[in-house]
Write a structure and sequence with these properties.
It is a single chain. By secondary structure, this protein is mainly beta. 12% of the residues lie in helices and 45% in strands. It contains 17 helices and 51 strands. The protein has a 22-stranded antiparallel beta barrel. The longest helix has 15 residues.
Length: 979
């Protein structure tokens, strides 16, 4: 019966009603628990399908699985892929058969039978599933002692998501992540995306794929954080759901799971063929997106199935000139915006002027595009806002394939392979300022109007040269395999291994230090030998830094000369991870209140990280980006872990976990976790958990030297400076104590309410020394008449007083104490006007107390941009409200998103308040009847339908890219077809 074509007529409706209609029209007996299906809506099912194809179509995107126990009996259950374990299915069949024998022949009767047997089922093997946050099988998510949030494939589509990034940026529990281009504050990570649960750091959220680790990105954030690049995981169409564990899980998964865990679970049981196309346009801009994806799954037999998915994404650039708030001229070139005191033409330090010399602007400054002075005596400044992206040129290609095979009733295997390629181009200033040195223009220079040696403060190219381009090319590979089976006494075992790797090529142009210094001495040009040449003679040329070079009244700079002064980073980075893990789980003994369950495991990890920079970056040095040596590092980790789950009473369960990790660098940690679940009623669950968590120093923080160019205040002026931060082999692990207390209420079939109080006490955070704090201390020491202090030795200046370099270290310095509330409400119901679902999700950060150094002052970062410390922007309130309506072939989604107002703590600004932001997204879906041997979905949607601009913020480019999307209204259309 399962392979015979049947003509179905099941319109889109609630999944429960659709499954009843399917059962009536096919004659197939469906066995399921009402709670697993009542919150979903179904796809329309019209035309001839086999029973298997039809059921797969109805369940598509729900995360529910099914299995034909006989030709006319099917079990539908949550997370079928996890329970498909031979004997456990026999228990499924036996228990449901007993229910049928008792007279339960349809869904309504099964609901009564399920209620009568609820307590027995909760402790039986029928719930043999594994949820994120535990290795023990046998619990659903309402039975978890930790707070869990699940996002399913249908929710991705409802949000108009073209990638994981679009989901990450809207999560209320996530803040301070890097999810869009920000060439100024994240110049090394464009094209990547990351989680930052609770704003505890990019490297404090552990990201898994099907429960297994992934190599971190081959680039690091400017604060030294390493993270898993969520843009390079798997095609979105391949993701069944991702589960977020919102409390610490080091006792389960080890290092990095401080703030929580995000586990991406793929559609490994998909059958059929599905394709989607998507087009997006950013209103009133030149930027658009196209996106194609497809998935194919085939079951060769009852024992073997294969699934492959692929996607392609392409986005065109959106310039900062396309929005008024990101143009410096909108704010009359305020010095907090995207303006620089290093211009072209620039300024010159003239020793004979004033008492100790002074800077003098180029006399022709105001004759050039993009050049300006805030007063007649000001430096010659440069407006670089027109050259930066709000959205970059970006393309991504991804493919994922998985093969599942049952060798016997007690042994199954899985092989998973994936590849992702991402290419991003970002634009920036035509050339960058001379941050590492102010080179000398000798008195003998033919264009030197000062008739003495002067120092040049500026850059080699101005507005006429157009924007420079930085490229980021990422290649990400993953291979994973698993064997899974059961023993004679119903203990489960798994043996898994995975290898993942990311390679990056990062190429950013910059001005070469030595050739530029030589060219200002008349010894420039590609064919000049500085050791034997004569200034300005033959192949040796003068570089003219003055405005006269372009105005025709001075020595012109040839293209060949300028090209010879530009080098690049040319960095090749690699990060890889190899993991082997073995786990056994099962029942230790039977207690009066249920089974005492346990899991035991061992894990080995080998990780590597390296950066190979160009010779320019290593040796010659670059005048803006600076220089750093290559590095290569590796490390091994060995771990032992165990879990116990004990039902002390029929309504109380206690879970205890512990994990020991040992690193070959000498670092080790043991982390326990205790969880308690109390279910006094079937509709009520109270949960509490407390445990410790840790994060070991990363290979990058322990070994690398990072050059960065932060924006700081020096002597009352906004300036970019070059900072070199050195790895520290003596770093200690970060440590945290995590507590959660929550409740889930399901008073009715159509209502669910969750609230959780969470608390993190995080110590020994590994941070980069604050360049601003070092500069402030050095200036304070100087004002007190001190010399050669620690801070002063870390700040290098020119004779004119400009900072050329600040030396910093990675160190254990800070602590964070933060707590807050997560609140979620979901209501569903069937009416004569269709099925409705109303939901709301909110996170409130009560406090985020930061102590930068032991004994230092405490700053509450909740509600701040956190410009002056290591944290990131953190509004106190964030929330999303969703309305979902399904009626026949029609479906509507509406999202109202809110971000609270917060304060800008940057110094020397006039307006500190960043206003709250509310946006509305709307989406309409029409699902066709039978068409081309399948069903088609047409989706039309608008993100930010009222075209709300991001709140004005006195930050570079006029808004906060860590929190807000600068693009405004986005319109999209999508067509999907399932065969």
């Amino acid at each position: 019966m399962e392979n015979v074509a049947i003509s179905f007529s099941v319109p889109a409706q609630s999944l429960e009603s659709a499954l009843l209609a399917y059962s009536e029209q096919s004659g197939i007996q469906l066995l399921m628990r009402t709670g697993d299906v009542q919150l979903f809506s179904s796809n329309p099912l019209m035309g001839p399908y086999s029973a298997r194809e039809a059921l797969a179509h109805l369940l598509e995107g729900t995360g529910l699985g099914y299995r034909f126990m006989t030709a006319s009996t099917v079990i539908v259950w949550d997370d079928q892929a996890s329970v498909d374990q031979g004997e456990s299915w026999n228990r499924h069949a036996a228990q449901f058969a007993a229910m049928q024998a008792g007279g339960a022949t349809d869904l309504e009767q099964l609901r009564v039978a399920e209620s009568d047997a609820a307590n027995q089922q909760r402790n039986s093997a029928i719930d043999e599933i594994v949820v994120t946050g535990s290795y023990i099988r046998g619990r659903s998510q309402i039975d978890s002692t930790s707070p869990l949030k699940v996002f399913r494939n249908e929710e991705f589509r409802a949000e108009g998501a073209t990638g994981v990034t679009d989901i990450v940026k809207n999560l209320s529990v996530n803040s301070g992540s890097e999810f869009q281009v920000d060439s100024l504050s994240q110049p090394l990570t464009s094209g990547t995306a990351s989680f930052n649960l609770r704003n505890l750091g990019l490297n404090s959220t552990l990201v898994l794929i099907n429960g297994r680790r992934q190599a971190v990105s081959a680039v690091a954030a400017t604060d030294g954080s390493t993270f898993v690049d969520t843009n390079s995981l798997v095609p979105v169409i391949m993701i069944d759901r991702f589960e977020i564990l919102k409390d610490g899980a080091a006792a389960i998964y080890g290092s990095d799971a401080v703030a929580g865990v995000v586990n991406f679970i793929t559609r490994n049981e998909f059958e059929g063929f599905e394709i989607n196309t998507n087009y997006m346009n950013v209103d009133d801009s030149s930027s658009d997106e196209v996106w194609f994806e497809g998935i194919f799954g085939h079951r060769f037999s009852d024992k073997t199935n294969f699934v492959v998915a692929a996607s392609y994404f392409d986005r065109s650039r959106m310039s900062a000139t396309e929005r008024s708030f990101s143009r410096a001229e909108t704010f009359e070139f305020a010095l907090w915006h995207a303006v620089s005191s290093y211009g072209q033409p620039g300024s010159f330090f003239v020793p004979s002027r004033g008492d100790n010399g002074e800077f003098v602007p180029d006399p022709d400054c105001l004759d050039f595009e993009g050049a300006f002075q805030s007063s007649p005596t000001d430096l010659c400044r440069f407006d670089f806002s027109p050259y930066f992206d709000l959205s970059p040129d970006e393309s991504r290609s991804q493919v994922y394939a998985v093969l599942n095979h049952d060798f016997s009733d007690n042994l199954s295997g899985m092989l998973e392979i994936s590849y992702a390629k991402s290419e991003t181009e970002t634009t920036a200033s035509p050339s960058f300022p001379f941050l590492t040195a102010l080179p000398t223009v000798p008195a003998s220079h033919p264009d030197n109007i000062f008739n003495e040696d002067v120092r040049f403060r500026g850059r080699i190219l101005g507005a006429a040269a157009g924007a420079s381009v930085t490229t980021f090319d990422y290649d990400t590979y993953r291979v994973a395999g698993e064997l899974e089976g059961t023993t004679y006494n119903d203990w489960y075992w798994t043996l898994s291994t995975s290898f993942s790797r990311q390679e990056v090529f990062y190429d950013r142009p910059d001005t070469l230090s030595t050739p530029t210094i030589n060219a200002l001495m008349g010894l420039g040009g590609p064919d000049c030998d500085p050791e034997t040449g004569t200034p300005g003679v033959g192949d040796c040329q003068w570089f003219n830094p003055f405005g006269t070079a372009a105005l025709g009244s001075g020595t012109p700079n040839s293209r060949e000369l300028v090209r010879s002064l530009i080098g690049s980073t040319g960095m090749k980075g690699e990060s890889q991870l190899f993991t082997v893990e073995a786990v056994v789980s099962g029942e230790l003994l039977e207690m009066s209140s249920g089974a005492l369950q346990a899991a035991f495991g061992v894990q080995y990890r080998d990780e590597q990280f390296s950066h190979d920079w160009s010779e320019d970056y290593n040796n010659t040095g670059l005048l803006s980006i600076g220089q750093a040596p290559d590095f290569s590092a590796s490390g091994d980790v060995f771990a032992l872990f165990a879990e116990l789950s004990a039902p002390l009473l029929n309504t109380v369960e206690v879970q205890l976990a512990g994990r020991y990790e040992k690193y070959d660098a000498g670092v080790d940690s043991f982390d326990p976790k205790l969880g308690v679940l109390w279910r006094p009623l079937e509709e009520v669950a109270f949960r509490a958990s407390i445990g410790t968590a840790f994060r070991a120093p990363s290979l990058y923080q322990s070994n690398a030297v990072q050059a960065s160019q932060p924006f700081v205040i020096d002597d009352g002026s906004f300036v970019f400076i070059n900072v070199q931060t050195f790895g520290n082999a003596n770093l200690k692990p970060e440590e945290a104590t995590v507590f959660n207390l929550g409740v889930t209420l399901r008073p009715f079939d159509w209502a669910e309410f969750n609230v959780d109080y969470w608390s993190f006490d995080y110590d020994e955070l590994i941070v980069k020394e604050s360049a601003q704090a070092i500069v402030n201390q050095a200036n304070a020491d100087t004002a007190m008449g001190l010399t050669d202090t620690v801070a002063q030795m870390k700040v290098e200046r020119t004779a004119a007083g400009s900072i050329t370099r600040v030396l910093a270290d990675f160190l254990n310095a800070s602590s964070v104490k933060t707590d807050g509330l997560d609140v979620e409400l979901k209501l569903t119901g069937d009416t004569s006007m269709g099925t409705f679902e109303l939901s709301t999700n909110w996170t409130y950060v009560m406090k985020y107390d930061i102590q930068q150094v032991a004994g230092g002052p405490v700053v509450d970062g909740a509600g701040l941009v956190n410009f002056e410390n290591f944290a990131r922007s953190l509004p106190e309130w964030r929330g999303t409200n969703r309305i979902h309506w399904v009626y026949g072939n029609h479906e509507v989604n509406a999202y109202i998103r809110y971000v609270d107002s917060y304060r800008n703590d940057r110094v020397f600004i006039t307006d500190r308040k960043i206003e709250s932001h509310t946006t509305l997204d709307l989406q309409y879906i029409f699902s066709t009847s039978r068409f081309l041997n399948g069903s088609t979905r047409l989706t039309i949607g608008t993100i930010n339908i009222t075209d709300e601009e991001p709140p004005s913020a006195q930050l570079i480019l006029g808004f906060d890219p860590i929190t807000h999307d600068p693009r405004g209204r986005i319109v999209y259309v999508s067509v999907g077809h399932q065969f």
